Predict the structure.
Amino acid sequence: MARRKKLYEGKAKILYEGPEPGTIIQYFKDDATAFNAEKRATIEGKGVLNNRLSEHFMAGLNTIGVPTHFIRRLNMREQLVRAVEIIPLEVVVRNVAAGSISKRLGIEEGTPLPRPIVEFYYKDDALGDPLVSEEHIIAFGWAGQQDLDDMVALALRVNDFMSGLMLGVGIKLVDFKIEIGRVYDGDFTRLIVADEISPDSCRLWDIETGQKLDKDVFRRDLGNLADAYTEVANRLGLMPKNVAHTGPKLVN
């Protein structure tokens, strides 16, 4: 088999040239990083779990009419996605105070926010992905006003979908990060959800106990990260029943 052309390698994924024009193969690694990659580890099975979870979320969004780059899962670690032009911004939606917003504004972690808050962060690891305003975004040409309006609308629709899905399995969606890309249809462009949606990019707390089921388990040394992600997959019905657990084994 011909060797695939690697297009990009990030902290958690590798992108390869896809089999058809306009497609990319997205490979999920077992690497875990935190604090802008200052903390690193390899968590066996993490990539398998994130591949299946991201497929579940992206396919669900496609079903309800929220456009994403996801086409189909290829195997345990890879999925076929549409090639997009990534806007250099991380879009964060917060429902509950946690992480950087608690530190910046002195809000106690766990405090419900009066409404979902959408924030933008400039994607630049060397700068630590700084928080930026809409004024910065427009002034520096990263996106126009219509793009910003569409990004906020997409992010809030993702929030509605994910919040309801998680509530149904006893999990609180505290916050999450998405990336958004442009696709070109002739002379027109439109925006779609890209990258991934997984416990790597969300804060997920058990509604009853407050137990963390996301990457904060790794950031804060709260236990085994694969166990936390497996719990999320299990609650969503993505794990086989009555099988001796020797590592992540996901339903096809």
User: Anything to note?
Assistant: The chain has a mean pLDDT of 93.
